[in-house]
Specification:
- This protein is an all-beta fold.
- Helix content is 2%, strand content 43%.
- The chain has 1 helix and 23 strands.
- Strands 3, 4, 5, 7, 12, 13, 14 and 16 form an 8-stranded antiparallel beta sheet that branches. A 6-stranded antiparallel beta sheet has the order 6-15-8-9-10-11.
- It starts with a strand and ends with a strand.
């Protein structure tokens, strides 16, 4: 299900959170450790694959909490050396089902702005029971910056690599909001919004690689040797992550309620006059009209109240 709202004067947008977790959650009041699971809808954090400066496995040795970043209190990845090792953190999304069409994964990060030659960082969206280790880039979608190539972001999907007109400075000074929406089971759109300059936001659509469904997100950092948790130049900060359902919009137009939602295959509109319990939802009898990629339904207002929701057909 993807949101519900009631009739009232004006307009509204209803959107439910499938999963949400924040570094400010009380679970992380004292530390950030493997196996912790704040919020809901995500699996426990895993640091599997982390290696120290001697390339020896060291899960938990390069993960901490920090409040130094512009994005606020954050789960923090750091490195012990500029020549060896990797810091990794990841977790599952919505169990084995993963991200569904119409759902949006959002994360707020602040990337490092200084790192050594042939070092960098990435975010991987994959079908995997655990984190993808160093050298494994078989993700459905990979977002990365590596100094060997340039200081600009790249997106790697089924068609190859795309250089993005956003640099580490653009997204590292005040942070970045990254939104990934599944349009179908294997197509996507994403938007990268620098928090210091939203006017320079970048969007892209494409086809995912065969690593589906996306049920794991992994953050990885190879970088300069950190001076500690508050090193904003060299550390990788993650302040939040959420999964939101497909928004349902409603506007009152005279004696009608106009409902609209993005045309994602498999979703249909339901309504009820009472939330119960139990709530008796039924398919809305008026078929939607497709206009510019959105479905519109105009319902005459009847009675004192009416509720609507979108349901994804299984």
């Amino acid at each position: 299900m993807a949101g519900a709202t009631t009739l009232f004067g004006g307009g509204a947008s209803a959107q439910n959170f499938i999963a949400a977790d924040y570094a400010t959650n009380s679970t992380y009041s004292a530390s950030w450790s493997a196996g912790q699971n704040g919020g809901y809808g995500f699996g426990p954090w895993s640091f599997d694959g982390t290696e120290d400066q001697n390339n020896v496995l060291d899960p938990g040795g390069q993960q901490t909490l920090s409040s130094a970043a512009a994005v606020g209190k954050s789960w923090t990845l750091f490195n012990l050396s500029s020549t060896g090792g990797i810091s990794i953190a990841g977790r599952s999304i919505n169990g084995t089902n993963g991200l569904q069409p119409g759902q949006t994964f959002e994360t707020v990060i602040q990337n490092p702005t200084s790192y050594a030659y042939y070092r960098g960082f990435d975010i991987l969206f994959a079908n995997s029971p655990t984190n993808l280790p160093a050298g494994d880039n078989t993700a459905a979608l990979r977002m990365l910056v590596f100094n060997y190539y340039s200081t600009h972001w790249k997106a790697v999907d089924n068609t190859g690599s795309t250089v993005i007109p956003l640099s580490t400075t653009d997204t590292g000074t005040a942070g970045l909001k990254f939104d990934l929406t599944l349009l179908t089971t294997n197509t996507y759109s994403f938007t990268m919004t620098p928090l210091g300059n939203s006017a320079s936001a970048y969007s892209q659509t494409g086809t995912l690689r065969a690593s589906l469904p996306i049920n794991q997100v992994t953050y990885r950092l190879w970088g300069n040797q950190s001076t500690g948790p508050n090193d904003t130049a060299d550390n990788f900060f993650i302040s939040s992550m959420t999964v939101q359902g497909l928004p349902l919009n409603i506007q009152i137009a005279g004696k009608n309620a106009v409902l609209s939602w993005l045309n994602i295959p498999g979703y249909y509109l339901e309504s009820t006059t009472n939330l119960g319990p139990p709530a008796n939802w039924s398919s809305n009898s008026i078929p939607p009209v497709l206009i510019n990629g959105e479905n519109f339904v105009t319902n005459p207002i009847a009675g004192h109240q009416q509720f609507f929701q979108l349901r994804l057909q299984q």
